[in-house]
Amino acid sequence: MRPRIIIVGSGFGGIAAAQALRKSDAEIVLIDRTNHHLFQPLLYQVAGAALSPADIATANRALLRRNRNTRILMAEASGVDADARELCLADGRRLPFDYLILATGAAYSFFGNDQWRDHAYVLKSIDDALAIRAALLGAFERAEQCDDPDELRRLLTFAVVGGGPTGVELAGTIAELARTTLARDFASIDPRRARVVLCEMGDRLLTAFDPPLSQAARRMLESLGVEVRTGEAVRAIDAHGLTVGDQRIDAAAVLWAAGTQARPAAQWLAADAAKNGAVKVAADCSVPGHPTIFAIGDVASFDSGDGPLPGLAPVAKQQGKFVGRLIAARVAGRSAPERFQYRDYGTMAVIGRSRAVAEIAGLKLKGLIAWLAWSLVHLMLLVDFRSRMSVYVHWAWSWFTYGRGRAC
């Protein structure tokens, strides 16, 4: 019988692993709770009404149609029996495996304040993005009919918590939505008066970037009208807003982008975990003590020598490709590199139309040139040609017309 390789998760790492195993003499089983691969780096543009969900999501079966050795299951993993080499599913089934690749990703962490989940929006799925879009556009619609000055101010106030790339991108998108896209769409209100507040507990935004680029990003946000608050922790979030430091901010929506927690793969395996719950993996991305079980992407903590690798799409893709090729070589009886080596091509964050910061191959870019580089890289990272063309057309339309995407 052919060996069975189970991949849990159809994100960047899982898809890369499946594609690397396409020609192997093995049975591949890809399992995910959804039936599509999601390009998460552009999810904020769906939330901001710039793109349609179909522009950044592709069906797993369409992506892996050429993988004749691959079976796709829409199911949810709930645990691993490492001794029996079985993956446990939420519906009670148990699937035996010879090799297991865990690419289950991460969820947002509220740092022990789980009661805030009921009042803050997060951005990890299409449903999350559509919920944020509905909250933003719905707030403007309610403001159009509001006669209470205090309630009007609340309806035109939006708070983003977290000064990393996601928080910065969300804040810039909301500001542009209010100040350009919706500027002439209402008769009773002026959307340009909307207040967008970005809250970061640290002393600067985008701590993964050099300080000059962090400062440039802050200036770009402030040029869009975003109120940036650093060095103050969020103390409370409720249905009507949040408290930052000692100040109360009434807001129509609070968007949380402050931190992530790995999915519970470490608990499934009783493995050593980092502070964020990610599995501490060996040099070949395997789980120590379990040489046939691998963890990649956001669910893994890989020490590169300079600290853990960041939770970025390129890391997950490179790890997925490496592990897929490693397993394929073992199945075929060939030798293969036993240590994963990450190639860092740079880091980028977009602030708005023609505004971005980037560090690429030692170059520090900002403004329009960084935005063009960001656009090119993200277009090429999209998994299929149809998505690239659709996103390109929508970006061109939005850039020239300041319009918004479909189904808004």
Describe the protein's architecture and organization.
The termini are far apart. The protein is 33% helix and 26% strand. With 408 residues, it is of the alpha/beta class. The strands form eight sheets. Strands 5-2-1-9-21-20 form a six-stranded mixed beta sheet, with helices on one face. Strands 13-12-11-17 form a four-stranded parallel beta sheet. Strands 6-7-8 form a three-stranded antiparallel beta sheet.
Could you name the key traits of this structure?
6-stranded mixed sheet, 4-stranded parallel sheet, 408 residues, 26% strand, single chain, alpha/beta, elongated
In short:
By secondary structure, this protein is of the alpha/beta class. The protein is 33% helix and 26% strand. The strands form eight sheets. A six-stranded mixed sheet has the order 5-2-1-9-21-20, with helices on one face.
CA radius of gyration is 22 Å
Largest sheet: 6 strands, mixed
Number of helices: 12
Proportion of beta-strand residues = 25-35%
The residue ranges in which pLDDT falls below 50 over 5 or more consecutive positions are none
Q: Label the structural class.
A: alpha/beta
Helix content: 25-40%
Tell me the span between the first and last alpha carbons.
Answer: 51 Å
Q: How many beta-strand segments?
A: 25
